[in-house]
Design goal:
The complex is a heterodimer of chains A (100) and B (174). The relative contact order of chain A is 0.13. Chain A starts with a helix and ends in a 13-residue tail after the last helix. By secondary structure, chain A is an all-alpha fold. The radius of gyration of chain B is 22 Å and the shape is extended. Classes of the chains: A mainly alpha (100), B mainly alpha (174). Chains A and B meet through helix 1, helix 2 and helix 3 of A and helix 1, helix 2, helix 3, helix 4 and helix 5 of B. Chain A: InterPro entries: NADH_UbQ_OxRdtase_chain4L/K, NUOK/Mnh_C1-like. Chain A: It is an enzyme of class 7 (translocase). Chain A: It catalyses: a quinone + NADH + 5 H(+)(in) = a quinol + NAD(+) + 4 H(+)(out).
């Protein structure tokens, strides 16, 4: 499989994740968009690691990205829970205390 | 097979983008992660594919669904999320994807592949190692420092998340 195809798939997934982050109002769906973007980055790492199947640098990096994604999801959801307790909503447009 | 997984990944990601129901979005996110794991298998990264299924599908999506359950008043009606900035998002998404795909077609990957072939030709493997063997040996030798740092980061993040989500002000002043 030509390596360009992996990159194109990754670019499409990245753009969809970006659009999810921009459009959605619910904070949890925004986190889903972040996960999509991290997956797109991982596809790039795995595709590059095909060229170098002795050292496998890309696969190691993808594993560490997965670890950081798990940590990010846990902390993000904890913060969203606190925001929900404080504001009683997860709608990002209504959480605008700093807006003048 | 590769194009099948690509199609599933892109279509279910589009469901995440266009679905109004948060739970449908979460379940189609599962389909996206499974398809991406299939792509990892095709690219020869079996261990990363298994990790993807276990961590993302078994962990992160379940966490997201718990988040949905805990932040919505369960009242029998569907959990709806609204959209905003549709026009600017469409502009950003289409122009960014056009730019990225144009840049990908401009890149010269055959030179990169030739370089990799030359480097791999100089390497004489002493024994036949599978992908998981290679990853295990690498994690315990070359990548031991990032491995330990990742372990500590995960510990700190999970304790921090539990503290942030579960912290209650004590009434007796301590």
């Amino acid at each position: 499989m030509a390596i360009e195809h992996y990159f194109i798939l990754s670019a499409i997934l990245f753009c969809i994740g970006m659009a999810v982050i921009i459009t959605k109002k619910n904070a949890i769906v925004v986190l889903m968009g972040v996960e999509l973007i991290l997956n797109a980055a991982n596809i790039n790492f795995i595709a590059i690691s095909q060229l170098d199947n002795i050292k496998l640098g890309g696969q190691f990096f993808a594993l560490f990205v997965i670890v950081v994604a798990a940590a990010e999801a846990a902390v993000g959801l904890a913060i969203i829970l606190k925001i929900y307790k404080y504001f009683s909503t997860t709608n990002l447009d209504e959480i605008n205390q700093l807006k003048g | 097979m590769f194009y099948f997984f690509c199609g599933v990944a892109v279509l279910s990601a589009l469901v995440v983008l266009f679905s109004k129901n948060i739970l449908y979005a979460a379940f189609s996110l599962v389909a996206t992660f499974m398809a991406v794991a299939g792509i990892y298998v095709i690219a020869g990264a079996e261990f990363v594919a298994i990790t993807q299924i276990m961590v993302y599908v078994g962990g992160i999506v379940v966490l997201l669904i718990f988040g949905v359950m805990l932040t919505n008043k369960i009242s029998g009606k569907a959990m709806i999320t609204e959209s905003r900035n549709r026009f600017s998002a469409a502009v950003v998404m289409l122009s960014l994807s056009a730019l990225l795909i144009y840049a990908i077609f401009q890149m010269n990957f055959t030179a990169l592949q030739g370089q990799a072939l030359i480097e791999n030709a100089n390497y004489k493997p002493t024994e036949n190692l599978t992908n998981i063997n290679q990853l295990g040996i690498g994690l315990m030798s070359d990548y031991i420092l990032p491995f330990e740092i990742a372990a500590v980061l995960l510990l700190v993040a999970l304790i921090g998340a539990a503290t942030v989500a579960g912290y209650k002000e004590r009434s007796d002043g301590h």
